[in-house]
């Protein structure tokens, strides 16, 4: 759903740029509370994983494909504020290095793909885990539903943005019907990928899933014939594994290798059909005023390495480079945010009340 330059007029693009910048500023502050010793080492990896999986377009209808957006997945794994930053890092890398998503439309893409998917997905996820049984399986089910809804929500957000600032005269009703219809189908793929990923992490390291924290059952006491929560007590969880066994290193390396394999090898077998937005834009005439990307001559444009004629090698190498750059850029951002939190919490910056 990467919006290219020319779909949305300059004033609307500027407004969404301000919205995106404001959301990123808020997320940078909010991420300080989320990035602890568990999430901080993995946040950059989550961004790289989303980059890799976004290269895997899957068929959803005749002549149409879809790909992961990743907002719900990132929010559930590392927190909603950090999730916004993860997807924003991915979009920035894609726009600058791979000419995917217009540079003047970066604010539109961040607003649509990072903010809307994360906010809608995580809000629905939190609502579901509060009413479902407090189990790990419920987290996976809630992840599926949250991701499913987040994609048509992003399609609706794009439709509203296009209604406000679209550059072509197209019936907004037809755009809405086409966009939401195809993205409901794409949402099923998004939901499956999200649930499988969250379920896999929960199976080996439930403590690393931000959205699964605090779900243990509280102990009950019978008082005057009624069951009440035991104050300050909760059901015992399994004894923690030794520190060495619980190191993030194994999970981090496994996730990085998986990302490299997906981007460097599996991506070659991705669907070549246009994604949902591209298909709707072509069918409805939204793309009449689309502009060539400012970085169309980039050495990595269109997810291929310039001057390498073998398509498999070119695409695979571009994917590997993308994963590497994204994990480094993301880790740098989250390390800086985490360090800022540590500085804010240091004794020198803490006031003592007498």
From TrEMBL:
Its main location: membrane. It comes from the Bacteria. Keywords: Cell membrane, Membrane, Transmembrane, Transmembrane helix, Transport. The keyword Cell membrane applies. It is found in: Cell membrane. Pfam families: CbiM, PDGLE. Signal peptide: none annotated. Residues 249-339 form the PDGLE domain. It is a multi-pass membrane protein. The chain crosses the membrane at residues 7-28, 40-60, 72-98, 110-129, 141-164, 176-204, 251-270, 316-337. Gene3D superfamilies: 1.10.1760.20. This is Energy-coupling factor ABC transporter permease. It comes from Streptomyces hyderabadensis. The lineage of its organism: Bacteria, Bacillati, Actinomycetota, Actinomycetes, Kitasatosporales.
């Amino acid at each position: 759903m990467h919006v290219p330059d020319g779909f949305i007029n300059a004033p609307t693009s500027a407004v969404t740029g301000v919205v995106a910048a404001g959301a990123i500023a808020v997320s940078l502050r909010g991420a300080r509370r989320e990035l602890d010793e568990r999430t901080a080492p993995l946040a950059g990896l989550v961004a790289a994983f989303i980059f890799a999986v976004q290269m895997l377009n899957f068929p959803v209808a005749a002549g149409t494909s879809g790909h992961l957006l990743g907002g719900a997945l990132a929010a559930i794994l590392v927190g909603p504020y950090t999730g916004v930053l993860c997807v924003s890092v991915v979009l920035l890398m894609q726009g600058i290095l791979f000419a995917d998503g217009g540079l003047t439309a970066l604010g539109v893409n961040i607003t649509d793909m990072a903010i809307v998917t994360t906010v809608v997905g995580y809000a629905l996820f939190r609502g579901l885990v509060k009413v479902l049984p407090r189990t790990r399986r419920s987290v996976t089910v809630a992840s599926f539903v949250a991701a499913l809804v987040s994609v048509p929500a992003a399609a609706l957000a794009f439709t509203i943005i296009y209604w406000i600032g679209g550059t072509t005269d197209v019936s907004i009703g037809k755009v809405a019907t086409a966009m939401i219809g195809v993205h409901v189908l794409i949402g099923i793929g998004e939901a499956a990928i999200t649930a499988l990923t969250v379920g896999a992490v929960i199976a080996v390291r439930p403590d690393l899933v931000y959205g699964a924290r605090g779900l243990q059952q509280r102990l009950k006491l019978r008082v005057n014939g009624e069951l009440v929560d035991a104050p300050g007590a909760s059901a015992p969880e399994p004894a923690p594994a030794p520190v060495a066994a619980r190191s993030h290193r194994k999970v981090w390396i496994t996730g990085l290798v998986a990302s490299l394999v997906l981007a460097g090898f599996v991506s070659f077998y991705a669907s070549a059909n246009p994604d949902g937005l591209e298909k709707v834009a072509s069918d409805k005439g939204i793309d009449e005023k689309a502009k060539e990307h400012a970085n169309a001559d980039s050495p990595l444009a269109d997810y291929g390495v310039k001057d390498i004629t073998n398509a498999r090698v070119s695409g695979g190498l571009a994917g590997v480079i993308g994963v590497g750059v994204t994990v480094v850029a993301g880790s740098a951002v989250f390390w800086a945010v985490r360090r800022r939190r540590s500085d804010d919490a240091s004794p020198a910056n803490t006031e003592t009340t007498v």
